[in-house]
Amino acid sequence: MDQVNQIIARVLAWESAREVKVERIAGLANADYRINVDGEQFVLRVSGQNTERLGINRLHEVAALYAAATAGIGPQVVTFIEPEGHLVTRWINERHWNVSECRTREHVRLLTETVKRIHALPSNGSSPTWRQRVVSGFPYLPALKAICKPCAP
Q: What is the CATH number of domain 2-90?
């Protein structure tokens, strides 16, 4: 937790905060935390070590995140901490769709519109390697198979 507190101290927007609460929420290659700062919710992504070995370029990533936030399809980027690549975004207080919701016509329409908006974003200069494409898609294959079944009329 010392590392997290040291990172929080580097976020200029929070230097006059009266109350900061930290909750670990997730992370595989990174460690993710929900941060409550004087009643406002944020996500702190603490970059994992050696993520460049996975082909992750944090500058390309943050460029894509800024573009998504500007387009209204991603959370606001509060700060990007270099050289480590730690990231703070606003918390989005929503829930994940369940499998049955994903199969409804309305949700398929919303998902399709969002994917179109993602593809309309400006390039961030990256070009994923074949390893990144394979590795990034693998954890989601079961979910994609469930979602891609034909929708009921």
A: 3.30.200.20
